[in-house]
Amino acid sequence: MRHVPASQFPRLLGDWRVGGGSLAGRLAVAVEKAVHDGRLPLGVRLPAERLLADELGLARGTVAACYRILRAEQLIITRTGSGSTTSLPPRLRDRLSPWASDRGRAGRSGAALDLTRAEPAAPFDELLQAVHAAADALPALLHDTADGGGPSALHSAIADAHCAQGFATRGENLLLTSGADAALNLLSAAYLRQSSRVVLDSPTYPGALAAFRAAGARLVAQPLGPTGWDIPALDRALQAARPSLTYLIPDFHNPTGLLMGEEERGELRRRLRAHDTVVVFDETMRDLDLREPVSPPPRAVTRAGDRDVVHVGSLSKSLWPGLRVGWIRAHPDVIRRLAALPLAAALAPSPFDRLVATRLMEHREAILDRRRAQLRAQRDHLASRLSALPWCRFRTPQGGLSLWLELLDADSSRLAALAAARGLSLTPGFHFSPDGALDRYLRLPFTLPPEALDAAVDRLTEAHAALESTP
Fold it and tell me: pLDDT (tens digit, 9 = 90+) per residue, 278-336?
């Protein structure tokens, strides 16, 4: 079982002594906040009362009283001989739906402003040309009786794009899927069994959470810090959990927009060698670099030819959300194994989608240049509006499609409910949490035009004002 050393608690809890009430009560509130916003993962063992009391300079009775408060709130579970572990109260567990994903959210229909979807606009002119060209080419494809199992023109186009970025790739390194979610479901079928452990960031992409939960996996959350990844802490999590699969988004992370730096990648590369786990790197957002000027993509975390590493990519964010084309990039032996699974054929893209994607890839750079400029302007506009609000804070993301908003005085579920009553659909932070935490966060996509973002911020502000007046 994972545990949190007493020496880490001063950093985790911050300045918890400020405020009214007893020391035990203030300490319990600080621990509760750390659990809810993901700083303190669920299912980890807390320090013994004596050790925590010594570290914080408290009487042991004060820590014991704090633990009693947390037990009463069902935020910790204490078992004889096993100590106290963090938990989620039953009233919050029901929020963890196995089908909750980035592409399906209850209550979304009919909303005047939908900020639950992070989807850029379609490249209309290039898309129309690609659809017409695909329609002309489709009859020949349908009459072709030759074996279509080898690399196609789309394989080559995707491989060439990776090579241009410095990632050596050939058609045999790619398995096409009907989107990134399909790739994650196929990998889950290949590598996970009931109760297999998966280590992953918190927050992370909800579609991955849905795929791993559907496979019956046990999710082990590794919290992201405000500035990125704590590689030594991730190393400890891998050592303790011994996961079958590890899922990371190092490039413009969804939903935070964080980018793993070269130094972090080097340290992660060294530490991964000690662990027997399949590592899945999600590259879906990698092309959405909003730095100016756009920088060369960071080096790969792992070496080419590693059979324990796979990469997942998609054209839905970079080219068009309606295009159901994604891929798994890995060693040819891994690709052959995955392609042999019965599920692979069911999760493959349709012939027409492949034709459209092949044509769109011819305009990839022009589409990306326009998309980055548009997203950069929309991101900066949203950030400018939000920076004037005293009840929230955020870091301007370096890339991706969304902004990760921390609420300083509110619960995101309550705020989202009040916003929905005002015609604004939002996604509370717990949807991005492997264990249902992150109550103080919202994901705000900046994929809508500035005037729509203005209206969204106005309604969000009205909802927060209503929250302040609600008992």
Answer: 999 999 999 999 999 888 767 767 655 688 999 999 999 999 988 999 999 999 999 99
Q: Which of 336, 365, 394 is the last residue of a domain?
A: 365
CB 244 within 8 A of CB 460: no
pLDDT in tens, 144-189: 644 445 679 999 999 999 999 889 999 999 999 999 999 999 999 9
Question: Which two structure tokens, joined as six digits, stand for 241?
Answer: 């959990």
Q: Are 446 and 375 in contact (CB under 8 A)?
A: yes
Among the listed residues 291, 336, 287, 333, the one whose alpha carbon sits nearest the alpha carbon of residue 308: 333
Residue ranges making up the domain that contains 75: 6-93
Measured between alpha carbons, how far is 195 from 218 in angstroms, rounded to an integer?
A: 5
Does 347 share its domain with 389? no
Using the 3D structure, point to which of 346, 365, 384 is the last residue of a domain. Answer: 365
- Nearest Cα neighbor of 8 from 174, 161, 236, 275 is 236
CA angle, 316 then 109 then 371, to 5° = 30
SS (H, E, C) 310-354: EEEEECCCCCCCCCCCEEEECCHHHHHHHHCCHHHHHCCCCHHHH
Q: Looking at the 3D structure of the chain, how many domains does it have?
A: 3
- Nearest-CA neighbor of 361 among 164, 119, 175? 164
- Verify that 190 and 274 share a domain, yes or no: yes
Specify whether 297 is located in the same domain as 172.
yes
327 strand-pairing partners: 176, 313
**Residue 25 CB-half CA count within 13 A:** 5
Q: What is the CATH number of the domain that holds 11?
A: 1.10.10.10
Taking phi first (over 0 means left), then psi (-120 to 50 degrees means alpha), and beta for anything else, what does residue 180 get? alpha
Q: CA angle 445-399-359, nearest 5°?
A: 90
**Residues 385 and 321 both lie in one domain:** no
CB atoms within 10 A of CB 322: 11
Task: For residues 346 and 177, give the distance between their C-alpha atoms in angstroms, rounded to a whole number.
Answer: 9
CA 406 to chain centre: 16
Check whether 109 has a pLDDT greater than 60: no
Cα–Cα separations (whole angstroms), residue 418 to 118, 374, 415, 467: 21, 30, 5, 7
State the CATH number of the domain containing residue 201: 3.40.640.10
Question: How far, in Å, CA of 411 to CA of 426, rounded?
Answer: 13
Q: Are residues 430 and 416 in the same domain?
A: yes
CA-CA distances (angstroms) from residue 335 to 55, 69, 169, 338, 359?
Answer: 51, 52, 13, 5, 24
